[in-house]
Amino acid sequence: MALCFGGAAMHGADVQAQSYGLPSLGDGQSLTTAQERKLGDRIIRELYRDPDYLDDAVLTEYVQDILASLMKAAQQRGELTEEQAERFAWRILLGRDKQVNAFALPGAYFGVYLGLISVTGTRDELASVLAHELSHVTQRHIARLIAQQDRLTPLMIGSMLLGALAASRSPDAGAAMMVGGQALVQQTQLNFSRDMEREADRIGFGLMQPAGYAQQGFVGMFDRLQQANRINDKGDWPYLRSHPLTTQRIADMRSRLGKEAGSAEPPATLEHLMMVARARVLMQTNTQVLRQYADDPQDAGFAAKSRGQKVGGLYAAALSELKLQHPDRARASIAALKELTRNDAAALRKAQLLSAEVELAAGDVSAALAQLDKDTQKITADAGRPELMARAQTLLPLQRASEITGALQTRVAAHPDDAGAWMMLARVWRQQNQPLRAVRAEAEAQMAQHDYAAAVDRFKAGQDLARKGGGDFYDASIIDTRLREAESALREQASDRTLN
What b/e sequence results for 289-323 when a residue is b if at least 16 CB atoms lie within 10 Å of its CB, and e otherwise? Predict the structure, then answer.
């Protein structure tokens, strides 16, 4: 998403910001990385409440892996500083929405809508969008724009950003969110300057090849968006308006390719086609469309399609049958899918994960576990988050949750912001009759999503349990410490709302 601030603030807002230790913008100084992360945390806790944001382990991992490779390239090229890498969140949030859009928020939170994933032709095209958004963060575009605003506090800007996101889906909701106690915002869409857009293009383009992606993906995505703008922009393509695709920018990308790079974009991987299919099905609420996806493999022309088209079609069919609650038909599509992907490790892994998903939904946990294809006694947190979460879901009904405890603990230690893993760990500990640890895990899940009020409630429940002898001294001490941290965060959150 792009940002360009406008509006007016009531006199004295900077003084109020200073009294709460928030960054004052009256002196024109840029935000520090810590302050920028704090602003991002404030915004993201509102987005977590949106039911259209989903934690899909398979898709999130796919997008996060692309971002991670781009980050590594940015570090090697000196675009991403060590301070940014350590302080910022670098987290992907998926939106279950058909609009073709993506955005970067302060503190390196990235939003990607399923609609965007669904229209990409290759992983290189998706990588080009992430590289562009990543470059907005590494070049501190948000902080630089904030520094230009001499009468706006970060709290006001947070409301404006939330309003802009809401306005892309509902203008009325956006307008309501953008009018706060300290700011009267006149704009409903915030845009980076075109110079910053071009800078993000240039730097993002430079990240592609070192990260292992074809630079042609930039041009391919631009062409795809430009064609949509000419033919069918009915309001579902906000990326077109927040990231103006001028002829000059497209020509610049073409010229950067150079003759040696060629003009043809590499073909899509089978894995990417499966992820595109997953995005299309997960964002779909129309039962009739799901039935069309499910019936596609039975179409007379299906046999004549390319291998990639068949893989995408079979994946969409199986997932659609799962949503339509027809597991037997889903199994038939997956059997054909596995045959087509047997020589492609990445694609076969996705097929096996989908098969486990179908079996679990059908209630056959033993069959689901068999699809995961590894000895659960040896599973580690490095096996992949989708496998880790799927194994936990299968082992719980089998009363074998203890087999996954160590891997889940390792996961949350390395990724304390993984709310889903914390909640799964809570279920695992409850099965092992460790209620104090389970309550603490539930509280940590709320902390990960910045819901400090809920976290305080669960930590206090843990204290009550500890007083009744529900756990050991070590666990009780951790809960006491974390409760104080949660209460401090909650007080700060309340101060933010007062200033707004």
Answer: ebeebbebbeeeeeeeeeebebbbbbbbbbbbbbb
Structure tokens at 261: 């790079």
Instruction: State the amino acid at position 61 in one-letter form.
Output: E
pTM of the model: 0.85
Percent of the chain with pLDDT over 90: 59
Counting DSSP H helices and E strands in the chain, the numbers are: 25, 6
* Integer Cα distance of 181 and 189 in angstroms: 20
CB count in 10 Å sphere of residue 130? 26
CA distances from 120 to 28, 113, 126, 222 (A): 40, 12, 6, 11
The predicted structure's pLDDT at residue 18: 34
CB-based contact 322:328 (threshold 8 Å): no
Q: What is the pLDDT of residues 208-263, one digit of tens each?
A: 999 999 999 998 898 888 776 665 555 555 555 556 666 777 788 888 887 545 56
Please answer whether residues 216 and 124 qualify as being in contact, where contact means their C-beta atoms are separated by less than 8 angstroms. Answer: yes
